[in-house]
C-alpha cells in the first residue's frame, strides 16, 4: 500500500493534518459559477421535479464528488501484477467540511462508508468531517431545462450509462412495463455526447407516449487533476446523484441494471483481479450503498439490480425481444473510452468488449453490432498488446472450466472468491446462494462456448488454410484443441496444513497439507460451528451445554467480535481476524439477545466455580439454564416473562449437538474422507464433549471476513 495521502476539501484547515503538506491534495468544489478546481453540474432538471434537498444529501453529493475527484488525481503506484497489493492500493485520508459533522463522524456512518468504499476501489479510506463554515444553495449545482416535456411525475430513478445492460433496463422499464422513469447519466467524457443523444432520441421513439426524462451530470476538473484512469469510486458518485434525485422526487429507490456475471466479479485473470474489475453493482457494494442512503435519508431506501441473475446474452435478448435491436449498435460498452473515435466506438480488447461480442453472438444478434465499430476484431485479428491476448484467452478458459464442472461444490472449490458474495444475496443459506450463482455462471459458460463453436464453424476455412493471423483468438483456440490453458487467478495465500474455518458464507477445510476444500454444509452449519469450537480447544473436555450455549452466544456477537477470545485458544493454534459464527440478532430483539449472551457467559464462569466446589446440584441447575438459554438464543424468541424450567431441554441439547456434529461429518466425508474419519474418531460426543487427537495437530480455526 502507498503512503498515506491527505485530501483537504473545500476550506478545511491544513493545520496539523500531515507532516508533508507538499503531498497534500487540495480540492475545492463549486457549482455552475466554477470558482473551484472541481465543478459539479446536474443538467436538464425540470422545475416540476425540484424539491428542497435535505442538508445530509447535500453533504453526500459533495463527499462523493470529492472522493471521485481524488480517485482520478492520486495515481496508483503500480499497474503490474507483481506489484498488485502494494503500489496499486492507496491510503486516502479525507478532511471534508459538512453541514452535520456529528452525523458523518458517527461510528455507524464511518464504518459503512469506509468499508463500502474500501471494497469498491481496493483502497484504504479515512474521513474527518469538520463543520462547514460558509454554506451555499444546492441550486448552484442545478441547470434547469423545462423544454423537456414531463409525462407525469416519475415512478422510478434508473441509472443509465448507455451500455447494453442499462439500455436493456431502460427498455424494460419504459417500453415493456410502461413505467415513467428518470434516466440519470454521468457524462465522464464529451466523446459520448452524440451517442447518448442518439440513444435518447431512439428510446423516446420506441416509448411513444411514455418518453423518459433524462438528467445528465458532469464533474469538470481542471487539467492537472486528471491522472488516474481506473476511477473505481465513480459508482459512488453515480449512486449518490441518483439517490439525491430520487429524494427530490419523493422516491425511495434507485435501480442499476447490470448482468450478474459482471456484478459478481469472479476473477478472470490477474489483469482484472480485485479492484481492477468493476464492482459497481457487486452485491456487497449495493448493500453498502443501500445502508449509506438509508442512514442519510433516515428511512428505508432501496438500491437494487433487477438483472443480477441474467447473463449478458439474456440482457441482449431483452433488447431484441422488445423490438429494439436497432439500438444495440448505438450503445457503448467499452471501458477504454480514451481509444474511442468516430470510426471505432469500441477497442475490441478490453474485458467488456470481449464479453459484449460473445453475448451478441450467443443471443443471435451479432448482425446488429457491426464489427467495423471495433478497433480490432477480437476473434479474427492479430492483437498487438500482450495483455489483450491474456484477457481473451483467460475469458475463454474460465468459461471452459466452468462448463466442465458438474456440481456446485466443484464450482466453489475452484473459485473460492465467490464465497464473499453469498451473505449479500438474500438467501436462507449459503448453499442456496451458491447453487444460484453456479447456475448463472454455468449458463454463461455454455453461452460463451456455444458462441465459440459457432465462430469456429463460420471461419473453418480461414482456420484450416491459415489465412487468419496465428495469434487471433479463433486460431489460438482451435490449434490448442480447445482454448489456451490459463489458470484462474485466486488470491495468494500461504495455507497452514490444517484448516477448519468459515470463509464468508461457507466453510473451508484442509487436512494434513492436502488440497483445500470449500465445503457447503447446507442445513448442517451448526455442526460445523461445534466442530470449529472443539478444534480450538484440543484435549479439553467440557460439558455439551457449555459448547452449545457458547456457540449460541458467539453467534449474536457484532461483526467486530471474533468469537473465541484469542487468549483462550490453545497455544500453537493459528488465528485470523474474522466474523462471528452467525447472526441470530436479526430474528430477536437485540437488547434481549445481549442480556442472554451476558447471562450465558456468566454461567460459563459459575459452572467452573461449582465444579471446583464439587456442587453437583448447582452444576445441574446451571446446565438446565444453559439448555434453556441455548434454545432461546437459537430460536430467536423472547423469554416471555419469568424463566420457565428447562425440563427435558437438557436432553434436547445433547441430542441436537450429537446429531449436528454427525451430520456435519457425514457432509465433510463427501469432500475429504480422511478428515471425516479423523473427526469421527477424535471428537467425543455425550454429556462431556471434546476433541482429543491421537497426536497434536495445529489447526487454523478463526473465520475469514476479507474475502
What do you see in this structure?
With 707 residues, this protein is α/β, with parallel strands linked by helices. Among the domains are: 139 residues, no CATH class; 149 residues, no CATH class; 193 residues, no CATH class. The protein is built from 21 helices and 18 strands. The strands form four sheets. Strands 3, 4, 7, 8, 9, 10, 11 and 12 form an eight-stranded mixed β-sheet that branches. Strands 2-1-5-6 form a four-stranded parallel β-sheet. The protein starts with a strand and ends in a 16-residue tail after the last strand. About 10% of the residues have low confidence.
For this entry, give a set of tags.
single chain, 8-stranded mixed β-sheet, 21 helices
Give the CA-based shape.
globular
| Structural class based on helices, strands and sheet pairing | alpha/beta
Mean pLDDT: 80
For the CA atoms, what is the radius of gyration?
Answer: 28 Å
For the terminal residues, how far apart are their CA atoms?
A: 18 Å
> What characterizes the major β-sheet?
8 strands, mixed
Helix content: 40-55%
The number of helical elements comes to 21
Low-confidence stretches: 78-85, 269-276, 482-492, 556-588, 636-647
Quote the beta fraction.
5-15%
Assembly type of the chains comes to: single chain
